[in-house]
Design brief:
homodimer; about 475 residues; alpha+beta; BirA Bifunctional Protein, domain 2; Rossmann fold; Translation Initiation Factor IF3; 3 domains; eleven-stranded mixed β-sheet; 14 helices; about 25% strand
Chain lengths: ~475, ~475
Amino acid sequence: MAKKEFEQGITSQDEDFSQWYIDTVLKAEMADYSCVRGCMNIRPYGYALWEHIRDAFDQRFKATGHQNAYFPMFVPESFLQKEAEHVEGFAPEVPWVTHVGEEKLTERLAIRPTSETVICAAYANWVKSYRDLPILINQWANVVRWEKRTRMFLRTSEFLWQEGHTCHRTEEEAREETMRMLRVYNECCENELAVPTVMGQKSESEKFAGAVDTYSIEAMLADGNALQAGTSHFLGQNFAKAFEIKFLDEDNIEKYVWQTSWGVSTRLVGAVIMSHGDNAGLIMPPRIAPIQVVIVPVYQEATKTLVLEEALKVEAELKAAGIRVKCDARETVRPGFKFNEWELKGVPLRIEIGPRDIEKGHVVVARRIDKEKAFVPRAELVPAISKALDVFHADLLARAKQRVSDLTSEAATLDELSAILSEKRGFVWAGWDGSSETEEKVKEATKATIRNIPLEGSEPTAGLKDLVSGQPAKYRVLFARAY
Amino acid sequence: MAKKEFEQGITSQDEDFSQWYIDTVLKAEMADYSCVRGCMNIRPYGYALWEHIRDAFDQRFKATGHQNAYFPMFVPESFLQKEAEHVEGFAPEVPWVTHVGEEKLTERLAIRPTSETVICAAYANWVKSYRDLPILINQWANVVRWEKRTRMFLRTSEFLWQEGHTCHRTEEEAREETMRMLRVYNECCENELAVPTVMGQKSESEKFAGAVDTYSIEAMLADGNALQAGTSHFLGQNFAKAFEIKFLDEDNIEKYVWQTSWGVSTRLVGAVIMSHGDNAGLIMPPRIAPIQVVIVPVYQEATKTLVLEEALKVEAELKAAGIRVKCDARETVRPGFKFNEWELKGVPLRIEIGPRDIEKGHVVVARRIDKEKAFVPRAELVPAISKALDVFHADLLARAKQRVSDLTSEAATLDELSAILSEKRGFVWAGWDGSSETEEKVKEATKATIRNIPLEGSEPTAGLKDLVSGQPAKYRVLFARAY
């Protein structure tokens, strides 16, 4: 019987990175286009990755004292309007429910673009005394922002995310929480997604509608472009005042709470794909990979039973050790087909088992990151695979960090910035006087924006000037083109 | 300092079961009313219960070969209309999005009441060959059905649920899947929620809009009323034909797939509350309880350090054994307050530790189900608590089964049925000729409906008659009033 040939069919990264991304997402069956404009179907392989990302973050939220809850997806129009900047920022891209069945609603309902308003309305009932504080709640939910230009995972009309919403007694506590969750995001991206990020504060023009201060983590993708991978907002008392969230303090004085909110989304799936993938397809970070190890048995008719039995034994051993393993025993395709397919799907380790391997008491282990192969003694398999997964994570992270280091430059003028961005992209440090005029001029000339004012390294060096105005720089900031 | 007094403030079950339910949900902080009509805020304690229920089912779905995925919440109007019975069943309670921002949409979008249409549209692209089958996918999501009369958890405009959607090569396979998942529901409700259910087929008038056959699990609540706790549908080829889900079979003939869908929802939280709770509040089934064991230290000023240290040690030991335990070390309230509060919240086991207990080398363990107390030697604590949780589950399930047995009757006539329902409610077996006329007359006279045609015991006994028409019975069925 003729066996099916493997068709990789993905554009190379150098030829067209955006097309490579679309091809990879579709061919690896991470997601596809849905019947609804700007929305996607997240397919099982893509969703499994999201589940592992979700669990990694959720565990950290719980370890820092947060609890999950769930609030309605509908926002009454009057609620959305209570915080002036908030409604201005979100209203243009909000879907409105006007009817139920044949009946017209007396008040229109927005589908949540974020839940500050609905959640603050609940908090106003829950908070009475300083004893009720802090409130540390997170929600996993779907939200909608009707974007003009969409891109699977990175920017879709509907997406999945988590949104933390906390209330505190003092400004200091709320500011601490804002920074704590920013650091949790940074740590989780590094240790689970193998994606290093730069923590910093957003400029006034880029902050969340309704926040006092917004902080972000910024990742660098394989093409040198930046991606905002998560945000943490210090909301001050803006929403507390709009929604009357007050508490009686120990000193018997009624006060407004101080709030934060913070979120990461299915965009992180895009970050993983674009950060690690190569011309053969995906490369999954081992700790969140849906499948960490794939076993491909290689046999002739005469050795089939022997090899398949051994392959299933290896699968059972690894599974018992808590490793996410799959034995690909399909008979309709050749081993070469399977190699290509699992490479496309980015499974970190592939174990090949043939009759000669069994004879010699070893297996072949191939690494997706560099396609290197090694013989591993059969008796040491479980600890060796566990270790190989850790080493794989470390190598993937080191590679990503190396890229950030290679593609981070310094520019003194707008011309220098332009030149760097057209030559190699990446992050570019430059002086900034703090004005929105500079931001606008840079954007117009280069399409780059200030990604953030990094927590580290943003102190202006002596004599540093704004790259546009030539005025003394207030900060050193990171410019980049972003998705 | 005067310590706060505990106010239980819940109506007794005998006085008004519905009010008892609302009081308990609110006071135990499971949920509260939201700013949006018919929607609720699921508070952390209620959501934690849902997370454990979700995980219990999710694990079983994965063990039976299903994968999770995610599809858009919007359903284009033209899609909803493709299956005639389906749109007729759901259109009256569907919210319609007509505008985004200021812009009017060219086609209205419904918020999903269930996802057959959107998912079938995707499956039509995914299925080409018999090799692509079966498709075994589940989705955890929010859905909206704008109900006229709502009740927290049992019936809310928006609710959380899972919906399985599968495609099969043959009718037989699809029918097997329908029954497999019905049995998974039944087993999970018994072994995790301690809620026994009756599996059976819904009558024609009660089946899912668009299904060929609908099966349900029916629970009996503490007041003797029934609750449909989950449904599993054999969809035949109805949606396959409407959405053109075809595959090339091994015999080279193009065929429509056979489908199933099945779901359980946050309604199960209501089932747990109403099934197990008593006049003191909730009783949580141990396997899904957010907190399985609460420790209350009891001390005077002189023994405070000694007792608190011991309490924290016990907490650490139980936590290390994987038990969900909380040490309530609050100093603002007395132990009696804590006892009442954790009883209201239904924590299965309470450990009391005082200086005399430490001296004697034991702790006091109190069971929420019957308030019985026992001394447990300190050295045997961990295994004793693990065992006590299992025994608690078994006792809770046995109690629920006893209720079903006590409150299941048999009626030969409509008058007998009426009398039973007004005396003690419960499930009532009766003969049914299969006509919708009987169903309507019974409903009119008693508000009871056929819950289902049970998988076991529905064979009519010799000479059994329909309770209304007096015609020969086609089935023995279960009637009950339901939420």
